[in-house]
Each structure stands twice: as structure tokens, then as C-alpha cells.
Amino acid sequence: MRYFSKKIRLFCLTLALLMAFAPSALAASGFRLNAQEQAMIEMVNSDRARYGRSALTLDLELCALAREKSSDMLNNNYFAHESPTLGSASDLLTANGVSFRSVGENIARYRSIEHAQAALLSSDGHRRNLLSRSYTHLGVGVALDENGFVYVTQLFVRR
């Protein structure tokens, strides 16, 4: 447990330093992660550490796009990897000028981010994205519906 706590503290310190010394255009424009997105990012990297994987680098641009995808699913009443308005994850990144070599996407709709993360980790395909050594960057977006359910999008990118 002590090792786990040190990893979380190190991740949070690294994230704070990155935000302080290398603010992105999104940070400058006022984009901020909400509490659920922050918690889910911590869960993803905690799960990766538990399975001996390195932490993924947080990317605010990917977070903004992941939030856009989650909101799109909520507002357009669908749940699918292929959006009728945004296309696939690679379409979304390309349309927004994000360079990448590969992209993976996990989506979930559950009563909480904790339930969503547990379900993603228990699914073979989603777990492969979560634990892949090939991805380097992570973006998480969460949208909340009127009943308190969360729509979650996790974008995994290799640059």
C-alpha cells in the first residue's frame, strides 16, 4: 500500500509541475479537468502501476476531445465508438490537428467512474488499451446525465 501511495503522490507532483512549467494552449484558454476526470486519470495510472506498466502522460488536448466525445454521446443519445457527428477516434484527432501514430478508445456508461473503470478493466479489449505498453499519452473526458450516470471516454495515443 505504501508503494501505491508513493506512485500516486509522484504522479500528482509530476502533473502539477507539467501544468506549472509547460502550460498548453488549452490550459491558457481556461480548459480544466473536472474532479471525475482527474480521479479517473489517477485510476488509470494506478491500474497500470498495479500491473507493472508505466504511467501515461496526461494530455489536456486529448482530455478536451475525450470530453467532447462523452458529451456528444450524451447529447445525441447514442453509445458507440463511431459517432454520427465526430466519426471514429482517429477521425476526431485528425480533424482537430492532433498528430499520432496509433489511437485506442475506451467508452463506458455507468453510475459512477469507479464502476466504469472496474468494468473497463474486466473487459479483455478495454484492458488491452488500458495496459498497453505502446501508448504514451492519455486523455479522459466525462459527461454526466440528468440521472447521475457518467459517460466516459478514454483516449490512448502513441505519438
Beta-strand content: 15-25%
Low-confidence stretches: 10-24
Task: Please trace the helix and strand order, writing H or E for each element.
Answer: HHHEHHEHHEE
Shape: globular
Give the quaternary arrangement of the chains. Answer: single chain
Radius of gyration: 15 Å
Number of distinct helices: 7
Produce a short descriptive summary.
Helices cover 51% and strands 18% of the residues. The protein has helices at 2-21, 25-28, 35-50, 60-75, 89-95, 113-122, 124-131; strands at 57-58, 102-110, 137-144, 150-158. Helix 1 (2-21) packs across helix 3 (35-50).
Tell me what the structure shows:
The chain has 159 residues and is an alpha+beta fold. 51% of the residues lie in helices and 18% in strands. The protein is built from seven helices and four strands. It has helices at 2-21, 25-28, 35-50, 60-75, 89-95, 113-122, 124-131, and strands spanning 57-58, 102-110, 137-144, 150-158. Strands 1-3-4-2 form a four-stranded mixed β-sheet. The longest helix has 20 residues, at 2-21. It is globular and about 40 Å long.
Topology at a glance:
Elements: H1 2-21, H2 25-28, H3 35-50, E1 57-58, H4 60-75, H5 89-95, E2 102-110, H6 113-122, H7 124-131, E3 137-144, E4 150-158
Task: For the structure shown, list the relevant keywords.
7 helices; four-stranded mixed sheet; alpha+beta; 51% helix; 159 residues
